[in-house]
Queue: 3 jobs
Job 1
Amino acid sequence: MSALEKFGVEIFTQHNIFERISADKPFRPENPAFIFIKSGTIKLRQHFSDLELSANMFMVTDPQTIYEMVSVSGDFQSRMVSYKREFISALSLKFNRLITYRYFRQQMNKGVPFPESEMEVVWKSVNFLKYILDSETEMLYKKEMVEHLFSVFCYQMAGIISKEDNYSMNQMSRQEEIVFVFLTDLAEHHLTERTVEFYAERQSITTRHLSSVVKSITGKSASQIIALIVMNEAKVLLNSSNKPVSEVSSILGFSDQYAFSHFFKKHLEVSPRQYRHQFES
């Protein structure tokens, strides 16, 4: 049984992080996680932008997002704290909103650094938590120790994120807020709703206004982003399962396999079967 199943949290280093981050094809994390970079760089593609992380940066990954690794340097040194969502739900809603906001910032920008001194403290906390998780010594209250150490880590992160992002979150422009809500709605409804009209109605604004705002903030139109999200979902289903193309098209809400194949080929210039074959050979 993995530490994640047993204790609700698991820690990966640069030596085994690629068990959870696929190096050669798009992937969806099974659980949310914090990824910290001590040295070197890693570049990940998420949604519509590349995110480059270097020393003293961290990012928040989310199971609703599909990532693709672009590159990683030879001197890459990292820790990934992967946790079950329910393990963090007891913490304040404010913390969760800050995490969501940080995640939104990632979609827009490059990674944001935080002070080396703070990274040092967090790094030590994470390593100590890992030491307890990995210890084979019989510990009577190991589960409770893990829960408390994880709470300490969460409060450290809440402090760092609050200090850095609270002002920005309060200063979020109306345009940024529209995009923030659009991306949040899209993550929830993209399997059943693919029209710009649906997402505009959710915010009681016109499709023209939503498209204009999304384009000005992200550089891509709302319909392009919707197609990107659906394509990423399709890629993961095709390369991480043996489901027939007809079943994949059904999961993605297409009327039939032909409609899905037409959509896929339009955006990637290869058919779903040809795409899947690339990873089999």
Note: The two ends are 32 Å apart (CA to CA).
Job 2
Amino acid sequence: MPIPEDVTGDEIDKDVRQELQSLPKTLAEDVARNLVMVARLLDEDPEGAYGYSRVALRLASRVAAVREAAGFAAYANQKYGEALAEFRAAKRMTGNIDLWPVMADCERGLGRPEKALDMAGAPEVHKLDKAGQVEMRLVAAGARRDMGQLDAAIVTLQSPELAANSVQPWTARLRYAYADALLAAGRESEAREWFAKAVEADRDGSTDASDRLAELDGVEFVDAMAEDEVGEAQAPAPSEASMDKDEDDKDGDQDDRD
């Protein structure tokens, strides 16, 4: 797959670069450039990211960072079985537990919420940092909802991190998930409160909390361009009578000139 000339491979994280030092220099550069493309496209063009991840995987399947990148690319394309296999491979290679929450979410994607809940209660969770533990809580709550256990999902999300006033990278998503679970349980006034709190914490627009809040408040957004197009499409065509009148006027003008 083509790679833009401005992508050198030097853009990758230093830890990944260090992993690639086990490869021949030219090969390491090729793999690095493909990994950069995976990172660039993952959010906006997941299919493209997946394509580059497959190239990197073909070139260096024994590098943990490559397996991890392939896992995230597959995950972004909802290829959960493939993603889980890649994450497991990366974990075996490094012993790193950071991928545990996303591995559990892959189990959800495969229709196995019970397995995700088992992973949420495993000893590995205690080895996660705070961000990882919050992510695991979100996955566990999602698994509860998958199983129709709305009240249990709400309880799962109730935590010191949810109640904290300080804003952390996970705060907006945690508040949003809590608001969404409340709304699904029919607790609309509480849901509105927490969507508002999610908006306060969502400094980079990572959720659509503001839209959900507006929806609860009965605010409707109108696409001005679409409205103009509809107005033009619905503009009445001139009636036959008016067209006849225009013709008569033209004929009268012609007679006057004659």
Note: Residues 34 and 52 are 5 Å apart (CA to CA).
Job 3
Amino acid sequence: MIAHLKGRLESTGIDHAVIDVGGVGYLVGASARTLAALGPAGEACVLHTDLLVGEDFLRLVGFATAAERDWFRLLTGVQGVGARVALAILSALEPNDISRAVMAQDKATVARANGVGPKLAERIVRELKDKVGGIAIGPAAAAQVVPAGAGADAVSALLNLGFRPAEASAAVAAAEEELGDTATLDALVRLALRKAAK
């Protein structure tokens, strides 16, 4: 799993960026919001990432914030929402706006995104209502510490097991505090699972 990319912005397109990391150019799909946050070509940048794996493809998707990445994972878990639609929603709405729309069951706000009709918008707000409780809304979200390295991979592992983003982050943070900075991914995931189960 690739948790993030830190390098130099080589170029951007309508729906992607090329990030040069140590001489290797990574083609990364991204929302319009993330592309706007990257700055000019040639500048240093960091992207949180998610690796999509299919039968005949590997696709890297990048995000300006961990909250945007968490929402991408939640959105693509809804039937009928693929990566393209999830990125369209994230281009049209900030993570806090999506949280508010889902909590209020406001399908009209979600339907503002390209490619999202009324039926799909209704399914998104209905299916995600029980899952958004774990995502911080407002200024608290900006204050959350984004784990790096093994910590980020451990959070990703817990998210893949169905934990809410806030639960996963809290459990991994507690495990890191107990094990220290030199903890392996395996040890972090095992202890985080025990912490989350309490």
Note: The chain is about 50% helix and 20% strand.
